[in-house]
Amino acid sequence: VSTEVNGILLAGGAGSRLFPMTTAVSKHLLPIYDKPMIYYPLTTLMLAGVTKVWLVCDSSQRGLFERLLGDGKALGISIEYAIQETPRGIVDAFSCLPTLKQKGPVWLALGDNLFFGSGLGPSLAVNNSCLGASIFLKEVKNPQDFGVAQVENGKVVSLQEKPKQPKSPLCITGLYRFDETVWSRCKAVQASDRGELEITELLGKYLSDESLSHTVLGRGTYWLDTGTAISMAKASSFVESVQSNSGDIIGSPHEAAVRTGLITVSDFAKLVSRFPESTYGDSLRNLASVL
Ligand code: DAU
């Protein structure tokens, strides 16, 4: 029996909101303080228990992602690359991954979402045995900028994508876990008015047959979409502040690998001893000295 847990890491898209920073390079390779943006959602997937990552990106960026992440072996996981030529929407990621189709349930993480909080890993990993789809909600001040879920009596009753008048302050964050029915359901998703295959429409198909479950992320969990210049700056300053005050490291796939037992403490120590002197390298060497 395979214990492999699959996860899609979505790193395509035009990045037009970050022009001209994204003219030559994918936004997911730009820094959030001391590490590339893609490290943060990769870490989230690993904490959720994902052992096989399918990274979806533009063909022009594939070589850069491969240079950064390789085949994942150093992190105790495996990473495969798939190409999305045109950004047709988040749901389009599934059609870029025909080989993943036979493999059952799958996580999906948007490449520009940052999560941080105590106990996050275990609270995500419980969803590995769930039927249907699981979503993670966070109360925000600007729900109109995101997908929004309205919850009544503990149940999601409606979903809206970037509504002018949100029915609730609960944003649907960019992390989802789907059962194997996702492969047939995503085929029925139609392009929206803005011409994209919207994730909220796919989630709506689960909602309509009562197989959508949700977790509301509480005060102890920090969440940010880092897809705009201002949110990148805010996220960088948050990461810098937490890391320099507490020594905790946010968004390190290397730390996630050793904490979840994907690599041994001694392999971790060997790996980080070879890292150059940098804020990231130094903080991981500090961690290695106390494990
Ligand atoms: O961040 C959470 C929000 O993400 C959700 O609340 C929304 O429901 C969801 O639609 C999405 O909204 P955004 O407007 O933030 O999506 P964006 O176009 O920024 O794309 C999200 C990520 O997915 C980003 O890392 C780029 C990647 N992407 C996007 C599209 C449309 C792709 O790889 N391919 C695509 O075709």
Description:
The structure is a single chain. The chain has helices spanning 39-47, 62-69, 120-125, 182-185, 199-208, 229-246, 253-259, 265-273, 279-290; strands spanning 6-11, 31-32, 35-36, 52-57, 78-83, 106-110, 113-117, 133-139, 147-152, 155-161, 170-178, 212-216, 221-225. It is α/β, with parallel strands linked by helices and 291 residues long. Strands 1, 4, 5, 6, 8, 9, 10, 11 and 12 form a nine-stranded mixed β-sheet that branches. It has a two-stranded antiparallel ribbon with strand order 2-3. It has a two-stranded antiparallel sheet with strand order 7-13. Helix 8 runs antiparallel to helix 9 (279-290). It is globular, with a radius of gyration of 18 Å. The protein binds 2'deoxy-thymidine-5'-diphospho-alpha-D-glucose (DAU). 2'deoxy-thymidine-5'-diphospho-alpha-D-glucose is lined by residues 10-13, 56, 84, 87-90, 92, 110-113, 146-147, 161, 171-174, 196, 199-200, 225, 227.
> How confident is the prediction overall: mean pLDDT?
96
Work out the radius of gyration: 18 Å
Write the element-wise H/E pattern from the N-terminal end onward.
Answer: EEEHEHEEEHEEEEHHEEHHHH
The helix content is 25-40%
Beta-strand content bin = 15-25%
Which hetero compounds are present in the coordinates?
Answer: 2'deoxy-thymidine-5'-diphospho-alpha-D-glucose
Largest sheet: 9 strands, mixed
Count of DSSP strands: 13
Query: Gap between N and C termini, in Å?
Result: 32 Å
Principal-axis shape: globular
Structural class comes to alpha/beta
Ranges where pLDDT stays below 50 over 5 or more residues in a row are none
| Total of helices | 9
